[in-house]
From TrEMBL:
Domain of life per record: Bacteria
Reaction catalyzed: a 2'-deoxyribonucleoside 5'-diphosphate + [thioredoxin]-disulfide + H2O = a ribonucleoside 5'-diphosphate + [thioredoxin]-dithiol
Every TSCPD domain range: 4-78
Family: Belongs to the ribonucleoside diphosphate reductase class-2 family.
The keyword Transmembrane helix appears for this protein: no
Keywords: DNA synthesis, Nucleotide-binding
Organism: Raoultibacter timonensis
NCBIfam families assigned to the protein according to its UniProt record, in alphabetical order: TIGR03905_4_Cys
Its EC number(s): 1.17.4.1
Protein name: ribonucleoside-diphosphate reductase
Length: 81
């Protein structure tokens, strides 16, 4: 289990489990509960690169980042941990 502390978004933490480069589990602490539960289900079974291709660089409103963009940052760090 790797815990990433996102910056510039509502969730306080993103808990990540990888099996090699495959996302086996993700859960967000805080944020938009329903949306983030759905995102967690969508990314399970995907590779880190597949998730990055979909979500890296996405923004939220006027913010320069988003929950899914921060997820990609956390996945990259978890992958190298």
């Amino acid at each position: 289990m790797y815990t990433y502390t996102p910056r510039g978004v509502c969730p306080r933490a993103i808990n990540i489990e990888l099996d090699g480069d495959i996302v086996s589990h993700v859960d967000f602490e805080g944020g938009c509960n329903g949306n983030l539960k759905a995102i967690s289900k969508v990314v399970e079974g995907m590779t880190v690169d597949e998730v990055a291709e979909l979500f890296e660089g996405n923004t939220c409103g006027r913010k320069p980042t988003s929950c899914v963009d921060q997820l990609v940052k956390g996945l990259r760090l978890a992958q190298n941990a």
